[in-house]
Amino acid sequence: MTLTRDEVTSVLGSVDETLAVELLATGASLAELEEAWAWLNSDESLINEYKPLPSGRVAQLIDILQVPDDEQ
């Protein structure tokens, strides 16, 4: 099942409409968004759990969510 706006907010908190639309357009599920968010916020612990590196929609979500280094 694809993401809803409410699910995006439940994982990420308040986000602007542009970001929400981009995330929804991926066709990702709630589980995929949660996994992408986990990779962005604790990638070392996921690697230590021998999780495979993100691919597919999870990787696409990470690309959308990741803040470029020059904007940090």
How would you portray this structure in words?
With 72 residues, this protein is an all-alpha fold. The chain has one domain. It has helices at 5-12, 17-25, 30-48, 56-65. Helix 1 (5-12) runs parallel beside helix 3. The longest helix has 19 residues, at 30-48. The radius of gyration is 12 Å and the shape is globular. The protein starts with a helix and ends in a 7-residue tail after the last helix. The relative contact order is 0.18. The model has no long low-confidence stretch (mean pLDDT 87).
Keywords for this entry:
mainly alpha, 72 residues, 4 helices
Task: List the SSEs and their pairings.
Blueprint: H1 5-12, H2 17-25, H3 30-48, H4 56-65
Helix pairs in contact: 1-3, 3-4
Which structural class is indicated by helix and strand composition?
mainly alpha
Low-confidence stretches: none
Tally the structural domains: 1
Please give the radius of gyration in angstroms. Answer: 12 Å
Determine the mean pLDDT: 87
Largest sheet: none
Proportion of residues in helical segments: 55-70%
The helix-strand sequence is HHHH
Beta-strand content bin: under 5%
